[in-house]
Description:
- The protein is built from 6 helices and 5 strands.
- It is α+β, with helices and mostly antiparallel strands.
- It has 2 domains: 4-60, no CATH class; 84-217, FAD/NAD(P)-binding domain (3-Layer(bba) Sandwich).
- The longest helix has 21 residues, at 126-146.
- The radius of gyration is 28 Å and the shape is elongated.
Amino acid sequence: MPDPALRRALTPDYPIGCKRVVMAGDYYPALTRDNVEVVTAPIERVTPTGIRTADGRHRAVDTLILATGFRATEFLAPLRVTGRGGREPAEDWACGAHAYLGMMVPGYPNLFLMYGPNTNLGHNSIVLMLEHQAGHILRCLRALARLRLAWIDVRPGEAARYDAMLRAALARTVREGPCTSWYKTAAGRVTNNWPRTTLAYRRLTRRPRLSAYEARPSPPATPSPRPPASERPAPARAGRPGSRASPGGWR
């Protein structure tokens, strides 16, 4: 970057990694082209023919692209989910989304999240995290069936201890540095990124600890009354190989 003024304008005032790192070799060369101007003054207003900045200058533009990003910290949006007692995530997550292992939230039985709060990566493949989550959820579902449970719900104390561990680990990372980023809420809480290794996450999710959950047994099954013989469908007739059963038979 030969121009010292441009170099000063492009030099971050926060540590590398606080914001998402741009992995591109043509970014800086593109900004040094003769037909490119880097403007750091705030936009005051958009006019019918261009943009007026806070320094009083007006720049005519043909096309205006709004790089507004996405609502990365608003998990489950725009879905509406209701938990026990009518609670909703918007209330429980007023200070930022959080979930036990990034998958379960107290008060929402049998609600399993994938790619939930604090499971995003900046150093490895997110596929690894998704595979660990899928395996953990399947093991929970098998336990539900094996133990004949109607639902499981992570205990609030377990979720709080997990979140405290997560906050302590994040505090030692650059993610909580002095900057705004897409993985932070407006209040500065990091809700997206995982602060440890994928191996550490695998160890935590490998075997569900049923003691971490409240559970409710399934009610005894009530046998269905057998319909009268006159209302029972006729059995399918056997046909030649490849032939179809009669329309009135069982599929």
